[in-house]
Amino acid sequence: MSQAGACRNHYHGCGYQLEGSDEWHPVINILASRRLYKRMHTFLKSDGRDGVLFRHGMPVAAVAGFVDVVTQGEEWAYERENQYDNLTPEMFRAREMRTQYGAPYTWYTFHHYYRGIKYGGRVPLSAILTYCLPHRVLPCEGRAGMWPVWKATDEFWTSSEFLPYWSPDSPIKTDQENVLGSVYLKKADKKAMLVVANWNTEPWSVNVKIDAAKLGMDPSHVRVTRAVQHPILQPEDPPDGDTMNNRPINYRDGLLKLDLHGRNLEILVIEED
Prior knowledge:
By secondary structure, this protein is α+β, with helices and mostly antiparallel strands. The protein has a single domain, classed as Immunoglobulin-like (Sandwich). About 15% of the residues lie in helices and about 25% in strands. The protein contains five helices and 15 strands. A hairpin with a 6-residue loop joins β1 and β2 (about 25). The longest helix is centred in the N-terminal third of the chain and has 16 residues, at about 30-45. It is elongated.
């Protein structure tokens, strides 16, 4: 549900007047909103219920503690046919990661839904994941195509250490600008999920250098496999029928070679044998 808006209807106790004026000015009763959210949270979590309070729009701090999941991001619809063309990794980190409250955040990927057709056409799921996964954000997505992604990421999402591409200590590095590599590490299990995402609009062949020792693994006894297989991460209309993401994994001596379509990614698992 959305948060309370400004109201000046003094017949139910809102609004105020300045001295000498007949005009009523609006107020937002934040504490009343807090009481409402607290009551809903109590109801949803008591008497054996395990409900979820799903919040559309970032909450004010007064109610954030009673929210389970947050979603936001449909304002990108104003870009219309440009869609996410102006979105950069830096902007996503500053504006769309939404980690300040600690509540799980999902990105409202407006252009991936049926409504996106009205605003310039739908965006492939592979592109949406390219934006989200390097930043430890999931899309607000209920389509069946997400099931293989949820299945692949479930093992790592809440029980791993996130090592983002912007960290100077990241155990993986790419040799192409705007090809981002982030890691979800389960060090005790000697296992990690690697996300390599090509934010460029054109395809790239990229070299990914992996420091297995930083992952707590023996470099001579690791293997790399795909966590999600074709066709989920394919462009909906790949050029010349080319399915780059279905090619064999080329990994040797700490170097991973990948071919990625524009605005596409690989979700990989590296583990010690």
